[in-house]
């Protein structure tokens, strides 16, 4: 004889939890939850909460979000000059005449460009590589925007290329590779400093950062 | 089940937003993978750089599971050479070859010699010769070791200056002279660790190991030799800049 499921000792609330876990919302809302759950930072539970919030605040949130997503889908393009994401091509940074056109800052991803812009410390132009050289993942120089960078560096107005790549083995290998390719382009090549972050306490720093900081020490 | 071991980081692959699957060359458990929770965090990312020497604790319910790893840093080898393109290329070359080792098959000697290479990465006079020896050991552990103990033709053990590309055995200067163009040069430092290593010796050493790596390891798999290895050899062959 097949035993009854759920067994009596689990109680009635178990049935309700099972149903919630499977999802009791309509297929359209379930689809929305599944899409939201694909976003970074959102798991299935937080996606469910976000979806519920959107559905409950239809006019304040859902409709403006839907129209903003539509506009983004129709207008956002990748800048053919620097690889940034913007609604114009070339992007607003590349067309901004107030920027220092003698400096090109090379970054790995658009997120890095946004981080530098957020800090507001650089008034030059940018170049997004789209990744780093990675033999293990089969990413070679032809997969990155290195050729277009070399072409840009030949512009007589450009005097410096700043390699703002991650302080990892892959990031620095890519930086060295690019600096080799730029030899003969007539530009000075620099990179970001490695060392103690602002607010960092020596006691809590990893050995590698400390070693890099000691190596790059400056006279005061 | 769980175990602890020392290891060298070979590579990391992201898994989700926070975790990574780390690939390690361990001292006693061979090439081993494991999930590192929080491996993409600010705290763990510097530890999980290729070539770093770490102490790991591996745990899993069953031995055949992927398992999870906790990692403690012993030596941050990568951090000291981020400014050195040759050393970085050496790291990429060695780690991409070590990834071809069979999983969970112990290679303690290969681990120790890899550790020696990484520990000396800031000594340009030392590590390239160690890397040639590591590549020879790697060929041996993969089942394609060269026999450099005696001449394949005459059996003598002195004045061995060539290696036969066909058999992978050493050939003496006298026996090999008529076929010198077809034989590969055998640098003296591969027979005698006390001999001073010249730039030509290094070049011959990498040519020798490169030939057999391509023939036995990379060629049959239909993959090219690591680009980083070629880049490293090119940079090594350039004249070293004078210290500032």
List its salient traits.
heterodimer; A: 220 residues; two-stranded antiparallel sheet; 9 helices; B: 244 residues; five-stranded antiparallel sheet; three-stranded antiparallel sheet; 6 helices
Structural class based on helices, strands and sheet pairing of chain B: alpha+beta
| Rg over C-alpha atoms of chain B, rounded to the nearest angstrom | 20 Å
**Strand percentage of chain A, roughly?**
5-15%
Roughly how many Å apart are the termini of chain A?
A: 85 Å
Distance between the termini of chain B: 53 Å
Query: Uncertain regions of chain A: pLDDT < 50 for 5+ in a row?
Result: none
Number of helices of chain B: 6
State the helical fraction of chain B.
25-40%
Strand runs of chain B, count: 8
The oligomeric status of these chains comes to: heterodimer
Q: What order do the strands of the largest sheet of chain B run in, or round the barrel if closed?
A: 3-2-1-4-5
Order of helices and strands of chain B: EEEEEHHHEEHEHH
Count of DSSP strands of chain A: 6
Biggest interface goes to: A-B, 21 and 30 residues
DSSP helix fraction of chain A: 40-55%
Q: Name the overall outline of chain B.
A: elongated
Query: Low-confidence runs of chain B (pLDDT<50, min 5 residues)?
Result: none
List the helices and strands and how they pair.
The complex is a heterodimer of chains A (220) and B (244).
Chain A: H1 12-22, H2 27-37, H3 44-56, H4 58-75, E1 77-78, E2 85-86, H5 92-95, E3 103-107, H6 110-119, E4 125-128, H7 146-153, E5 160-163, H8 169-181, E6 188-191, H9 207-215
Parallel strand pairs in A: 3-4, 3-5, 5-6
Antiparallel strand pairs in A: 1-2
Chain B: E1 2-15, E2 19-26, E3 31-36, E4 53-59, E5 68-75, H1 85-98, H2 108-119, H3 127-141, E6 160-163, E7 170-172, H4 173-176, E8 184-185, H5 199-221, H6 227-237
Antiparallel strand pairs in B: 1-2, 1-4, 2-3, 4-5, 6-7, 6-8
Helix pairs in contact in B: 1-3, 1-6, 2-3, 3-5
């Amino acid at each position: 004889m097949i035993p009854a499921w759920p067994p009596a000792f689990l109680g009635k609330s178990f049935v309700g939890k099972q149903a919630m876990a499977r999802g009791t919302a309509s297929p359209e809302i379930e689809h929305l939850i599944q899409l939201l759950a694909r976003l970074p930072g959102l798991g299935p539970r937080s996606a469910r909460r976000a979806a519920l919030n959107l559905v409950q605040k239809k006019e304040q949130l859902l409709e403006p979000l839907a129209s903003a997503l539509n506009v983004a889908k129709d207008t956002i393009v990748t800048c053919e000059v620097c690889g940034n994401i913007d609604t114009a091509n070339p992007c607003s940074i590349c067309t901004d005449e107030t920027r220092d056109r003698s400096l090109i800052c090379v970054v790995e991803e658009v997120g890095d460009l946004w981080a530098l812009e957020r800090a507001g410390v650089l008034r030059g132009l940018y170049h997004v590589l789209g990744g780093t050289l990675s033999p293990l993942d089969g990413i070679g120089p032809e997969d990155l925007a290195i050729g277009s960078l070399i072409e840009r560096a030949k512009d007589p107005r450009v005097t410096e290329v700043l390699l703002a790549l991650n302080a990892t083995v892959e990031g620095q290998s890519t930086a060295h590779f690019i600096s080799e390719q730029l030899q003969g382009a007539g530009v000075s090549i620099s990179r970001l400093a490695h060392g103690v972050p602002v607010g960092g306490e020596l006691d809590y720093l990893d050995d590698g950062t400390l070693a890099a900081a000691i190596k790059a020490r400056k006279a005061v | 089940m769980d175990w602890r071991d020392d290891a060298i980081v070979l590579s990391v692959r992201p898994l989700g937003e926070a975790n990574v699957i780390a690939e390690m060359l361990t001292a006693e458990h061979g090439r081993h993978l494991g999930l590192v929770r929080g491996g993409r965090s600010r705290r763990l990312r510097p530890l999980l750089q290729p070539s770093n020497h770490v102490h790991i604790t591996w745990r899993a319910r069953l031995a055949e599971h992927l398992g999870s790893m906790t990692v403690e840093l012993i030596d941050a080898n990568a951090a000291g050479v981020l400014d050195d393109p040759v050393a970085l290329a050496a790291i990429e070359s060695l780690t991409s070859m070590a990834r071809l080792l069979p999983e969970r098959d112990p290679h303690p000697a290969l681990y120790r010699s890899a550790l020696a290479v990484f520990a000396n990465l800031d000594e340009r006079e030392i590590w390239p010769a160690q890397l040639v020896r590591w590549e020879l050991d790697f060929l041996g552990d993969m089942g394609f070791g060269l026999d450099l103990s005696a001449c394949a033709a005459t059996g003598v053990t002195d004045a061995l200056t060539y290696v036969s590309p066909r058999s992978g055995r050493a050939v003496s200067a006298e026996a090999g002279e008529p076929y010198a163009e077809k034989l590969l040069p055998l640098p003296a430092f591969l027979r005698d660790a006390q001999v001073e290593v010249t730039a030509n010796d290094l070049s011959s050493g990498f040519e020798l190991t490169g030939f057999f790596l391509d023939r036995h390891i990379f060629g049959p798999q239909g993959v090219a030799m690591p680009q980083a290895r070629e880049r490293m050899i090119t940079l090594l062959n350039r004249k070293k800049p004078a210290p500032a």
